[in-house]
Fold this protein.
Amino acid sequence: MQKRWTVKKYEPGPERSLQAALRIHHILCRLLVQRGIKTFDAARHFFRPTLNDLVDPWLMKDMDIAISRLEEAFFRREKILVYGDYDVDGTTAVATVYTFLESIYSNIEFYLPHRYREGYGISQQGIDYAVENDISLIIALDCGIKSVELIAQAKTKGIDFIICDHHLPDAILPEAVAILNPKQRDCPYPYKELSGCGIGFKLISALAQKRGMPMEKVYPFLDLVATSIAADIVPMTGENRVLAFFGIKKVNEDPSPAIKSLVQLSGLKEKLTTSNLVFVIAPRVNAAGRMDDARKAVNLFIEKDFDKAMAIAEILHSDNFDRKEIDMTITKEAVELIQNDDTQASRKSTVLFQPHWHKGVVGIVASRLIDKYYYRPTIILTQSNDKVAGSARSVSGFNVYEAIHRCKDLLENYGGHFYAAGMTLKPENVKAFQEKFEEVVSSTISPDQLIPEIVIDTEISFADITPAFFNILKQFEPLGPENLRPVFIAKYVIDTGHSCIVKEHLKISVKQRYGPSFSGIGFYMADKYPIVSSKKPFDIVFTIEENEWNGATTLQLKVIDIRPS
């Protein structure tokens, strides 16, 4: 798959000013300016965050009402239900709020909708459960902002809602007692990008303050908040970065039984980073809801005994193994369907349907097809009872939700955002939907959007890559959206004569005209070996990482792409 390279622009003036203030390598200052960090104070907050940088929770609209309603429930001995979504953000949010409230109040339980029987968000079954169990207050976490009708129904049955949601609200808001969501138009809370668990953390922070409790009672939940931030792909900026910084610190220094057991089962030896949370912890947590019941994930997070936590973690680990087997099988079947259909070659979209595919992994399969096989907007559909249900994923710059919206006459239900969406439709409409979606995509997508883009931060010379440079680069962690791992390009690179292919991977040893040589690895990039071994200069796109071997630590390149100079 050929890729297009886009090198970010930079601002020489602010870069020079920042370098004069910080006295570090100008390329590091360039990276900071690109991330909106242009002053000494901003850089100090970036590199040396403190818990004092956290925003006052009482600035959030309706926080005073939410806390008053909670205190009223405590006084009246009402039964409280902590309700959350079945993904990582939802399960960490439920575990955080439930565990904290349970430490001060006993008449409380939690509820997670079943992914297949109930679907996302507030469900009719959830409301019925609350009615049957005399629950009069529901705290909805990572969901609820769009559940106008169901929350109105609950209100007629004497059930109040406190909504803690971070999704974009519609014009009409639910009739909740309190809505905690910084994305509300009239919410003065200055940071708008908290995760669902982050908003839950703000709720318990305000409650702790109201009750005169030390903040040390809420800080132990920062590992769950960090996990939610990493897994939910929210911006790693501002307050999220502070929460993630201290959450990852806790994960590494004092992990909860849940995190400790998941890390142990994964076989991970090195220090945990946001990347580990995304690729090691999150899939195992998500697997609970994808394969069966997300309650297992909450039970793991609230468990205080390590041996009991390990027993639950082993079930999640097994669920994740099953999930991987299933999604690999479906991906293989999907690729074969495309390859055996002559019309697919000229299409600008992929829409595939097989009734036996597992609903829990269709989104993963859609992403995998885009990343590794066919770079175009992709929808994977499967049979769900008497309906067809599916997940859509998009390519850079293309609004897949809007494209699906234009096919709404063929759909029963749909929802989502710019890059990911879900839908249900009648089986007899699948063929028409495939054609309509292709028609919409073909007429709106640009040719550039069908070529994968590698966004490069800046050009660098090998001579600039020193241990001192990398030591500061490491401090850009925690990494995530809007603070991604810096990607570099080095030009006119030549092979030292020691590059080779190892299985499907490319091992390189390269240098420029001046400066040191570097080794590196390009996973599944054996096809680039002819460029490297041609004895002609080439350009290389990479990130920098440490390699530990026989007790020695060296810097190496993790290769992203290569092309002739």
The first helix runs from residue 12 to 22.
